[in-house]
Amino acid sequence: RIPLARGPLDEHLFRAWKISKRQDQDISAVFAGFSIVHHHGIVSSARLAFGGMAATPKRASHAEATLIGRPFDAAALSDARAALALDFQPLSDMRASAEYRMNVAQNLLTRLHHELAGHPTRIDSVEADHAQH
Question: Beta partners for 45?
């Protein structure tokens, strides 16, 4: 459960993303839920939670702390991405390697940064090689 931060809707961004091999009926390799409250471009509250990065879903407290009280700019993004290594030491299993999980988690923070900047990212289709092997 991620309690939502309170604030005017135009100053509150909530996003959740699931990363798995199949979109439906599959356990996530990584899941992220983000709640950011900002006032005049300064982050006043950051709640960053991940599943698939530890034994149970948990918040990334070190990454959250890097964002509070500053603009969510490129420097803050870089600091938050680096702080994830303090928050998590993911395991490798049949769904994903530890390196892949960390890379995905960091990239989801980058996606959040784009969303907050008003440049949302979207994947409309995925190209795949359907050739028989």
Answer: 37
CATH architecture, range 9-116: 2-Layer Sandwich (3.30)
Helix axes 74-87, 98-116, angle to 10 degrees: 150
What is the pTM for the complete model shown?
A: 0.81
Phi then psi for residue 60, to 5 deg, are -95, 80
Structure tokens that stand for 99 in this block: 């390196």
Calpha distance 99→90 (Å, rounded): 8
Kindly write down the DSSP assignment for every residue of 1-41, as one continuous string.
--PPPPS-GGGEEEEEEEE-SSSSS---SEEEEEEEEEETT
Spatial separation of the C-alpha atoms in residues 13 and 38, rounded to whole Å: 8
Flag residues of the chain having pLDDT under 50. Answer: 126, 128, 130-133
